Sequence to fold (151 residues):
Amino acid sequence: MSFTKVLLISAVVSTFAIQIEATSRLADFASSARDVFQGITTAVPRHDQIAAQANGKAYPLIEFKVPPQHEKEFVNLFRTVHEIVAEQEPEVKYSLSRQSDGNLIWYIYGEFASVEDYNKHASQQYEHDFYNGINELGIVWESHLLQPVLG
Fold:
């Protein structure tokens, strides 16, 4: 076997070993990141310490990054909560939307009479079930309480 072939085989083996090591480290990082964020993503958002209110109302906006393979499950989880809320809290107004370009970003926008009403809503068992369900699907979310500026 020529020196060139030996050198080429050695380079390929080394590259393969580096790729395996990098993949292993990435898997370890993903596992530890999942452990770190596990508690964060299972918490139901509360805003009792946020004073972002206008006219006494609360306007939560929750952003979800939904992988395409979990869109149906996500919509079904929301539908379940939406049906319960329509029956038990008819004064609550909120909706599910997604970005028009059809990417991974979905939103729940709501309107509540006060932050206290929103916190009461957020503490219901069906809300906990919703957030536990999206956590099981690996859906990442972020919650904001909006403060109207104009309009």
